[in-house]
Design brief:
Number of strands: 9
Distance between the termini: 127 Å
Radius of gyration: 29 Å
Structural class: alpha/beta
Mean pLDDT: 87
Largest sheet: 6 strands, mixed
Strand content: 5-15%
Shape: globular
Length: 317
């Protein structure tokens, strides 16, 4: 019995049908779009990696490790008081090899905004003037460095020290802000150190680390839109807004206990012993002493602290 054999395959198969030109163009377009999209993703990743990183600043010999920044507003203050504040900053800088940057608040065009805003372009200016210095300590002119024996880095900024001080998972704006400080932040990721009092963040004393993030933060804080809002506490409320609603900023911020770098004089502490200056504290500040309706005197309130500083640390003008 014979079975039919399957047909033998030809050794010369017909050529494949040519692809349509439209299909080739579509495929090529898709590949180009994918390539462009991939490049965009890589660029964005690199930008955010650079922004979130805190590159160490390699400083040449002689570069000050810390720059102390204070904006000086001579309106309503005597020359003696301004000279005392200058001497306080210069004495502290001389003890530790730091630099001072003490511009007049009027040096900056604030477009009619309250004078307190001047601290932001002043710190930005200092970053540019001292591009190799790693730390910048802003202290307003209602503050005094009461214990000049404490260097900034050892007192606050070394990794183990700042990690031991940082207040984790606490409301950024007390008492009940839903936005809280990060609980997993490491000391080498910190670029901004602040304190808070019972009313909110305190921008009168802060430390910021040199770098692209610092410039981004200061530029964001000084945004003309925020200055146009006429916040009740001007730059203070703008700072709280920026910190709470911009994770990029919150992710580099730590809060430390107030008396570490922002103790209050008796009139400003409001009876709160946790905020009240005690001998040996690093800084004493008198927020609100210059309020026109407060019936207070910055010069009168500062006099005993200034005398203590002179006596304890044998500084004579």
């Amino acid at each position: 019995m014979h079975f039919a054999l399957p047909p033998r395959k030809s050794s010369h198969p017909p050529p494949y049908a040519a692809r349509s030109s439209r299909s080739s163009v579509l495929r090529r377009t898709r590949l180009q779009i994918s390539a462009v999209f991939g490049c965009c993703i890589i660029v964005l990743f690199l930008m955010f990696a650079r922004l979130y990183s805190s590159p160490s600043v390699t400083a040449p010999p002689g570069t000050p490790e810390v720059v102390i920044v204070t904006t000086l507003d001579e309106n309503g203050y005597s020359k003696e008081y301004i000279d005392q504040i200058k001497a306080n900053r210069q004495d502290y800088a001389a003890r530790h090899g730091y630099a001072c940057f003490l511009p007049k608040a009027s040096d900056y065009d604030l477009k009619g905004s309250p004078i307190g805003w001047a601290r932001i372009p002043a710190v930005r200016h200092a970053l540019k003037m001292y591009p190799q210095s790693p730390y910048f300590f802003f202290l307003d002119q209602q503050g005094l460095i009461a214990n000049p024996s404490l260097p900034i880095k050892d007192h606050i900024m070394t990794r183990p020290r700042v990690e031991s001080l940082m207040l984790k998972d606490v409301p950024v704006v007390p008492p009940d802000s839903v936005i809280k400080t990060f609980s997993h932040l490491k000391g080498d990721q910190v670029d901004l150190v602040l304190t808070q009092d019972k009313e909110g963040l305190s921008p009168g004393s802060f430390i910021i680390k040199q770098g692209d993030w610092a410039k981004f933060f200061l530029d964001s804080w000084f945004d003309p839109l925020y200055r146009s809002y006429n916040f009740q506490k001007a730059e203070g409320h703008a700072l709280e807004h920026v910190v709470q609603w911009h994770p990029t900023i919150l992710s580099k911020l730590v809060l430390v206990p107030q008396r570490i770098m922002n103790s209050y004089g008796r009139e400003s502490a409001g009876g709160d012993e946790n905020r009240l200056y005690k001998a040996g504290d690093f800084v004493v500040r008198l927020p609100g002493c210059d309020a026109p309706d407060a019936k207070r005197s910055c010069e009168g309130e500062m006099a005993p602290y200034f005398t203590e500083w002179q006596t304890r640390y044998k500084r004579t003008l």
